[in-house]
Amino acid sequence: MEENLSGQLADAVAQGADEADLARARAGDEAAFTRLVEPLRRELHAHCYRMLGSAHDADDALQDALLRAWRGLARFEGRSAVRTWLYTVATRTSLDIVEARGRRALPADLGPSSDRAVLDGNAPLTDVAWLAPYPDAGLAGDPAGPDARYEQREAVELAFVAALQHLPGNQRAALLLFEVLGFSAAEIATMMATSTTSVNSALARARKIVAHRVPPRTQQRTLRRIGDARVREIATRFATSLERGDADALVALLTEDVTWSMPPLPNWYRGIEAVTDFAVQVPMTRCPSWRHRVTSANGQPTVAFYLGDDAAGPHAAWSITVLTLRGEHIAEITSFLGPDGFAPFGLPASLP
After folding, report:
1. Which of 18, 172, 174, 191 is the most buried (most CB within 10 A)?
2. Where a domain ends, among 184, 213, 242?
3. Contact partners, residue 297, CB within 8 Å, separation at least 6
4. Where is the SnoaL-like domain (predicted)?
């Protein structure tokens, strides 16, 4: 009873503080606006990432959304919560970017897999907007609404974010606002300036497409069953098998239908024979020396790889490699190549 009353009192105090800051912000106090926004910044950024499939685009979207919110603050009448209003602005900003830039892709979206290692003719495709990984640190303080169906980490898993890219913008927004954030269809209709009937129709179509593309067992369920220590062990064994050129150790970790893709390279591999051939021909043979750091992206075990000319010299950032597990084996390997993706993870650009 006392704890409940204390919680209610704290909520009331926080609400009063928000109202005071809102009044000050409307009067032109930028510091008050910052205080309103700051507790919501991470969850808004994660929402923009789900919409856009890129942490860089999410940075741009959130910055633009907060600027729009600041400039439009006088028009906010307080009929909804500040959080709802900010999600409205962030969603509409993201929809503008979706319309301008199109959807993001993975190599499997562009063509069939390769049976053998492609050593020539596998140049990076720079005219494709590629899906990008998301550091788990960005999920801290990212609460779901009471009616949300997806957990926050489930909602950034690679399979889910990749499936979202196959939805039109309005369906993508409706699904995220309803299933991930717990807004009602009526609230979403107001946020997107449409009807409840249109929202329900968009939700039905979106659910059908996502259900077809997302495995029934989420990574979060798999990882919870395995346990953190075992998950880290699998990621470490994967990394060390490549560092040591140990093909047998690698094969022991993989499912029979494993896939390996490396955006921005268009070629990708499916099946244990094709993946093993690629691993032996390229990272185990043509890459002189590897080092790694185990981290986490998209709610999944991840290895940051560094490549060097020899074991004694410096190693430069090479890839953020996200692993998708099925049971205690690796079913998908997605290596996002390039050093630009390391900074959002707080990782150095090189290792000595």
Report:
1. 174
2. 213
3. 133, 134, 135, 136, 320, 322, 345
4. 236-332
